[in-house]
Specification:
The chain is of the alpha/beta class and about 325 residues long. It folds into two domains: about 180 residues, Nitrogenase molybdenum iron protein domain (Rossmann fold, 3-Layer(aba) Sandwich), CATH 3.40.50; about 130 residues, Nitrogenase molybdenum iron protein domain (Rossmann fold, 3-Layer(aba) Sandwich), CATH 3.40.50.1980. Helix content is about 35%, strand content about 15%. It contains twelve helices and 13 strands. It starts with a helix and ends with a helix. Pfam families: Peripla_BP_2. Belongs to the bacterial solute-binding protein 8 family. InterPro entries: ABC_transptr_periplasmic_BD, Bact_iron-sidero_bind.
């Protein structure tokens, strides 16, 4: 699970989650004149140089990072297999609504396990660009491989996944609904518009990393929740000492990590005078969000909206 957490953390740091809401146009090239969702074969313009041809609508989808489970579940399409499937379905809050009804083949934690992938017999394989460079040719012999640019917005990734399964209209509806959720949540958070928020992950056993304010769904003023970062809060993912956190002295601290790990990190600091001096601590404004929100997927954005609505109502 540590490797899974690390992958998600990297994705979160690198992703400009809500910086491009306008990038939701279709990039599929139907090769027949049939209507949307029925046009097969079709060429998917993914993050590869030449795109990927799908001869027919895929029924067996294998994803090589559990992040992409979020997108296909949102599109009412259950993948047949995923890396770290059992852990993700058990631990990701974004996937709990589907945990009782989904049967997904667990491919293990290694996306390069060609034998397991072959046994799953997928019609298409979905992963992010750069993760399978050394085995791309071998994977392509099993099934077409769709590569996703992990720096793309959640909107664009939602649409790309929709093109794979022919559900572009549903994707457009979901994107619009989610953008409306963000706007509504931002309006409700206006009661806290002068409050500062520090978004953190746990670094090791007890220290913290700043998630960074640059282009995250939390701080983006145009297409995100528009939270105010404390003065001195870094743009990138940097390690923070308690003293560094104290100099920022945010009104709210959001720790976005595995719940047990985050709770242990907070407990470890309860006796610290520096920790107890923080405004967020004194006012009981230390909030723990589920680790799955670091995926920055469409389900993560929607769940974050729910979390923030509850926060605004307190």
């Amino acid at each position: 699970m540590n490797r899974l957490i690390g992958w998600i953390a990297v994705l979160m740091i690198l992703t400009g989650v809500l910086a491009g809401c306008s990038q939701t146009s279709s990039t599929v090239t139907p090769e027949t004149s049939k209507s949307e969702g029925e046009a097969w074969p079709r060429t998917i313009q993914d993050a590869s140089e030449n795109g990927v041809v799908l001869e027919k609508r895929p029924e067996r989808i294998a994803v090589l990072h559990p992040l992409y489970l979020d997108y296909f579940f949102a599109l009412d399409t259950t993948p047949i297999a995923s890396t770290s499937a059992a852990e993700a379905m058990k631990e990701f809050a974004t996937l709990q609504p589907y945990a009782g009804s989904a049967e997904i083949i667990d491919l293990g934690n290694d996306s390069a396990n060609l034998e397991k992938i072959m046994e799953a017999n997928p019609d298409v394989i979905v992963t992010f660009k750069g993760s399978v460079d050394t085995i791309y040719d071998e994977l392509s012999k099993i099934a077409p491989v769709v590569l996703i640019d992990y720096t793309d917005t959640w909107e664009k990734t939602t649409m790309l996944c929709a093109q794979i399964v022919g559900k572009e209209e549903l994707a457009e509806q979901l994107i619009q609904e989610t953008q409306e959720m963000i706007a509504s949540t931002k309006e409700q958070l206006s009661t806290l518009e002068n409050k500062t928020f520090a978004l953190l992950r746990v670094d090791g056993k007890s220290n913290f990393n700043a998630q960074g304010s640059k282009n995250t769904m939390y701080y983006n003023q145009t297409a995100g929740f528009g939270l105010l970062a404390p003065e001195g809060y870094p743009e990138g993912g940097e390690s923070l000492t308690l003293e560094g956190l104290s100099s920022m002295n945010p009104d709210y601290i959001i720790i976005q990590h595995r719940i047990d790990v985050a709770e242990a990190a907070v407990k470890d600091k309860e006796s610290s005078k520096v920790w107890k001096s923080l405004e967020a601590v004194k006012n009981n404004h230390v909030v723990i969000f589920d680790n799955s929100l670091n995926s920055a997927s469409i389900l993560a954005v929607r769940l974050a909206s729910e979390y923030f609505v509850k926060l605004a109502e307190q």
